[in-house]
Write a structure and sequence with these properties.
Chains A, B, C, D: Pathway: Amino-acid biosynthesis; ergothioneine biosynthesis. Chains A, B, C, D: Keywords: Iron, Oxidoreductase. The structure is a homotetramer. By secondary structure, chain A is α+β, with helices and mostly antiparallel strands. Chain A folds into 2 domains: 160 residues; 238 residues, paralog of FGE (formylglycine-generating enzyme). Chain A is 30% helix and 12% strand. The first copy, chain A, has a 4-stranded mixed sheet. Chain A starts with 11 loop residues before the first helix and ends with a strand. Chains in contact: A-B, A-D, B-C, C-D. At the C-D interface, β3, α8, α9 and β8 of C face β3, α8, α9 and β8 of D.
């Protein structure tokens, strides 16, 4: 049997590159973000980077090109005189959903674009990076703001790139590993959930929009919210706890489930988190390091909102609202936790020193993703960023093991449809007092 | 050409029957609700009452039988010794979504049940009514509460029966009328929208659960909510205003639309409210009295949440939250307004003496339908009533021209998916101050 | 439990009416065919006659109206001066597929037309019958030919009416019976299949188009065909033989199946003929007299071409070609056999005195439905009759228990898609010599 | 704008390699076929070779591996002691439809397999080729027959590889070219179609199964067929003639179309052959050399059976039966004509010296693909080769510009569904005399 080339180790250099906010200048910030994307794509073949495994996912090549198109379009084209477009036909390919920017390639056909190749997309990145870094010193403030936005935008796509590759590899019957990972050291199981109580009252949540701290438009305005007395768990639900839910028939009892969730369970024959599989009677999970035994102490991940809600119902409690979550997380450092640039593999890890609210898994809240009071989208194409997705989705908080460190913050509002679960999504419980 | 039998007039007797809450005794209440359902179905043929026009809708016969099944199952079977079930095979046919009550006929096959006939379903109703009315005096309190719940449940289905028949008739190329209607007297156009301002602050919303006032479980508990300064319109948007939105290209400009809404517009080729059609260059609408010229002064109806949201965006404002709506409506009498038992036809009508918050059209709010703080579903099968639908839907408030008078109240939370529009749904605007 | 009205007996008067070709005059022929349709529809409620159970089927009301529209359009409108159209809006509803006759109501929405009612359609029939019978004596020959065509056309729809009602009733969980049937007298099992050998050589098949014998256009021209040496079975396959195929794993072994057939088996979870169900470990079938124990001696029916082909493959033989079938059937009387006007129920019956080639079940041949050499469709709208369906379908021969006696003949080419099986379809085997 | 790497010229070496049947030994035959596949794939990137553009198509990498799996499984595994399987997990990936060979990767997920890479598949080919060529001298006769079958099997996949790549490239908005092609020299238009008459009578068709001449099982047995008097065209229909059909409204008039064809035209908005597009008012076509002006003198290609049949109907004639075609082609040399190894580009070319029956385009016949009299599939897995596809498809004859020279013969029966048109399919007319 031929030996497939072994999966590479997670690149050490990336780890350094992954703390871009430490650097003080925008130049370093841009260079750091841009090089991290390349480092993440380094182990990918041209084919790995081209195929689209489902309509929710995009090819890695597309992520690399789309984030570049963002800088080229909104910064270089609009603000840099004499900039020469890399290829006039590519905006059609690499625009995502900005209706104001004209026609786009159909989302479900992104995987058809075998040309340009991955190497040609890397040349595109180099072309735009050179122009962008050269222009930085003389950019007007509005354009500099767009550069900062572009960096955060690219960090979002870094997480998608990693989770989309995971999904693609899971579709391959050979189940290849992206990165090799060290053998696991067994850890102690976390103790029972502790509950952080809150007496209720008016709190302030949302992002204030101060000049030095970046936030996406949907995180503001900062505003008052009224909490009622409640308690929130000091850690997320573990794989071991989830296995007990399964063993108790959790996926077979409609009483735990929202009606839409139950329809989804039956239509898609759902009986465990995504990527879980029983091998010789024991649960395994597929991850970026291939298929491995399930770690009962680690946070459960790849569960949908429907599953999260059903678990909470089974446990006799509920999911936190996003305001409750933000109030609880406000005092914690968003840069500590298991993020993408940790030394170890990209996967949720057991924790010993909780409560922590950042990293590991995005936590489903019970809040629908809707505008904050006073929210107004930015004018122009960039304004299509978040507001237009405000129906049918739920808010997730906290960041995951695939989030670049520094990208998470207490006010951050991630959002997905209630059936989606190919991101590193998990569950924190809450209850009324 | 043969003359089709002319559509009957809306029955005068129904009008009387439609104020069941005026009567003081439960006996009269039950008798009134039950007879209204029969009056609504009176002009229907066996075939009219059997066909299912889409998966969201149900046959009239099914509504008549399902509401009867509710009383038979939860009251007679569970609380009346010696009750003889009408037909042991019918619960399978007429259970709707109560998983705890066992297997059900597939929702999308309800229209296949040509037998039992409409007359046999009427016999079923008579059988159950006789047993129910006879048992009333000696029912325990818990069972009496279920009878009250059953009446409100049936009122919900009365509205669905009427809107489902409208949808069915609209599918018939001959566009039959259910009821004939008098010739319209032209009315004055309403003046411009006036704005009712609110300074913000903590208010109480939701239903308190007092013994004398009925409410569905999802309306409570009564709780504090924080409003920010805002204003709410003193009337709903009219057909004439909507026609201006269309003429301004409202359905062709993605900037006004939520992303999911725009996908819906394109996939379903939406370019006007449901049942609107241009005939010889002028807008008409199909209603329970057939196809007629559009009345520009009447409230627009049969619009989806997506359309409501797009209209508000086009107008530079937004939809109210359900808390804002309830705070504004709290001081108004929920029994005044254009309800199903009005003398005229069942359709929204121009108003002259606003602000009014009840009747005419259900008003889309910007609030996702989610549980109130402290909400707990009732135990048992009846507890499946509302809580399990709390994902993916939006709240509507106020009641419509197809709502039985007395069924609406300030705390009432109706809910539908954002693309649905076969109910009498309309739009009230709001804005931040 | 209420007693549903018992199913009526099959009408005795219909039996008489069902031998229309016995009468010598066209007047009697028209009157006989038209009254048989009414007799078949007699036990139907308005709802029974209105619902469409699947896209392949049509409502009984539609069959009654469409066959009437055929006479009204091609005879009365085109050939009878001063004929007053019954309703100018109805052709849109009741045209089937005649593109040349203009726009039609979408086939999959036929079940939405609750109005006109069944009674109004009966009035339509009376109106057209009166005009048609009055005009008969003075019709030009071309129009008389269209009347004859219309009678045969209506006989086709009589068979569809019956099989469509059977399909609709099978969708009803209560499984109502259309007609009551006498208790079965057990019969002897037929002996093993006998084989009728043929030495091969050139034969003549197809219809010669003589003036006195009606045939559809696709049955001609009469032409030479070359047979190779073969043998054809002297009876069709029985339910008992089919049960052995099932017991031997016939539906689980892909080796017996055409590739498209195997895909169909897996996609639709096919494991027995349509309407078969195991009740307490024994096979039952649903028929026009309700659900009953399977008769092992009767011909198997409600099997698709895929199943017929798989059965033949399992048995080590093949299906006959249509030329082989026609050559073998040529010497037999097409009016003997179990047809719709038999005294007993409409279902295939065991036979004792074979070989017989007519009645009981339509027999799948291995021949794709394609034009005979020299075939040319008739000019005009009536020419759309058969030729345009000549792709993707297979030929069936012989007529069934739901075919009006006199409608079958040796040259008759029925055709359906290989997955369809709601007609009374069965299997006769053949083999090479 | 960056210069995409220019498309390579069609490899000269391939041209030599493409006449494998010239060589006398099986060794050279195997080596020639195997190297041609590699030459065809030479200009492909890893991504080009991995993506699946639709369910009918397969990735080039899959074709390269599947043809190799065929030799590995049916020759090396079954007949060569001590053969070491290249990778035990790959048969699951590269089995196509042989049910007897066990489970297979789902056909519609073939494009998910980014690993093994194209290079790894080339290593697989080298591994199997070495073992196969080494084993050839000592293989038993049955195994040598399987090697011959494997070569013809691989030639089929060579044609699919080329047409699948064309389809994939056509899905790319940049419309890349696989091979560069010389500038066209304008040619004379062919004259009007000439008609080759046949008096009718019994002819012999099909393959006799002689030891020296290979044929697929479905081509036999050789048997008598009866022709009626007819004439067949001496050339295929040209692009110019097809443009006249379009200009005459051919795609908008249902009278020309089979019913299924008309449904397809309307559902898929078909208005021209695949890959045709109007640019600045003139027709262009996309081919393996990119998008170019249409050559009116060349045979039309990429038309479906439905289109072919509609064209013939519009022209007042019909398609030939496969027996008529074979009788007419029997006297012509199947190695002359425009095949894949011609010096020029792979596309149909105008002809001047007709009648010719081989090369350029596969010609739709009016014959459904069904077994010949006496046909019996081979035993075992290899027997699944052709027989199981004998429903729903039509026979094409003659070979195309993408067929390897030597692969075509008079008895060859190609088959596709009537809506498929991504092969090089064209039209020859016939008529009754």
């Amino acid at each position: 049997m031929p030996k497939a080339a072994p999966a590479p180790a997670k690149p050490a250099s990336a780890s350094t590159a992954r703390s871009p906010n430490d650097r003080s200048t925008l130049h370093d910030r841009v260079a750091g973000v841009r090089s991290l994307s390349l480092a993440l794509a380094a182990p990918l073949s041209d084919a790995d980077a081209t195929v689209q495994s489902m309509i929710d996912a995009s090819p890695a090549k597309w992520h690399l090109a789309h984030t570049t198109w963002f800088f080229e379009t909104f910064v270089l084209r609009d603000h840099v005189a004499g900039y020469r477009q890399h290829d006039e036909r590519w905006p059609f390919l690499f625009n995502s959903y900005y209706e104001a920017e004209g026609k786009r390639h159909a989302r479900d056909r992104r995987g058809m674009v075998t040309r340009p190749t991955l190497d040609e997309v890397r040349e595109y990145r180099a072309h735009v990076d050179a122009a962008l870094l050269a222009a930085l010193p003389t950019l007007p403030d509005a354009a500099r703001d767009l550069v900062v936005l572009g960096c955060h935008h690219e960090e979002q796509h870094q997480e998608l790139l990693v989770t989309d590759i995971l999904h693609l590899f899971a579709e391959n019957p050979l189940e290849p590993a992206l990165w090799r990972a060290p053998r696991k050291v067994p850890v102690e199981m976390p103790g029972p959930i502790g509950w952080i109580a809150h007496d209720g009252g008016v709190v302030e949540i949302g992002h204030g929009g101060s000049a030095e701290d970046f936030a996406f438009d949907c995180e503001g305005p900062r505003h008052q919210a009224l909490l009622l007395p409640h308690a929130i768990a000091d850690r997320t639900v573990t794989n071991g706890e989830w296995a007990a839910f399964i063993a108790d028939g959790g996926y077979r009892d409609p009483r735990h489930w929202l009606s839409d969730g139950w329809a989804w369970v039956k239509a898609d024959a759902i009986d465990a988190p995504l990527y879980w599989e029983q091998v010789d009677g024991a649960w395994t999970r597929f991850g970026l390091d291939g298929r491995r035994a399930l770690d009962p102490a680690a946070p459960v991940t790849h569960v949908s909102f429907y599953e999260a809600d059903a678990y909470a119902s089974w446990a006799g409690v509920r999911l936190p609202t996003e305001a409750e979550w933000e109030a609880a997380a406000a005092g914690h450092d968003p840069r500590t936790g298991n993020f993408m640039d940790d030394a170890g593999p990209v996967e949720p890890r057991p924790s010993v020193d909780r409560p922590a609210f950042f990293g590991d898994v995005w936590e489903w809240t019970g809040s629908a993703y809707r505008p904050y009071p006073g929210f107004t989208p930015v004018e122009g194409a960039v304004g299509e960023y978040n507001g237009k997705f405000m129906s049918g989705q739920f808010v997730l908080r906290g960041g995951s093991c695939a989030t670049p460190r520094g990208h998470a913050r207490a006010s951050y509002r991630n959002f997905f449809y209630p059936h989606q679960r190919w991101q590193f999504t998990g569950v924190r419980l809450a209850k009324d007092l």
